[in-house]
Fold:
Amino acid sequence: MKFVLLIYFSLIFIGVSQSYKSKESSIADGREIYNDFCIRCHLSDGKGTPGEIPPLAKSDYLLNDVDRSIYAIKYGLKGKITVNSREYDGVMENQGLDNDEIADVMNYILNSWGNSYSELITDDKVDKIKK
Ligand code: HEC
Structure:
């Protein structure tokens, strides 16, 4: 019985510690995801390629509507958008990331290259954004 309780409380502890991942560790994990999945297009300085790949650094599109960008990373994005007064009409496939990975990469891009965003994006928030 004691053993069962021990397992039970360990699982609760693991669950709790995961949902309270610190912003710093989420950003650190997000950097790795960015380097694996996003850097080839949006580049290491987050500036993209003007006219082809939109910037994430100081992007009004990203910073003014976080839910819309979570949606784009989760489900993909295509068609005309305007980022920092410049039009883009490209395609970004969904990158096949899990909700917690999307949360981490969002925390990374929202707090890099001069961007800053006080709220922590959680996998719960990503989960709530549906098609
Ligand atoms: C194959 C190239 C490619 C990859 C890989 C890619 N993107 Fe994109 N991304 C684009 C393009 C192109 C658009 C604009 C799509 C459009 O014009 O509708 C875009 C748009 C965006 C936007 C919204 C516009 C902006 O600049 O604020 C965000 C946020 C974004 N990408 C984040 C990411 C993240 C995070 C990853 C990695 C998980 C990623 N992208 C991977 C090409 C890419």
